[in-house]
Amino acid sequence: MIKILGIVVLAFSLLPAPAVGQTPAKPYLYIGWPNDGEVLAAGKPFRVWFGLRNMGVAPKGIVFPNTGHHHLLINTELTPAGQEIPSDRNHLHFGAGETETMVELPPGRHTLQLLMGDDKHVPHKPPIFSRKITITVK
Question: Any signal peptide, and if so, which residues (predicted)?
Answer without folding.
Answer: 1-21
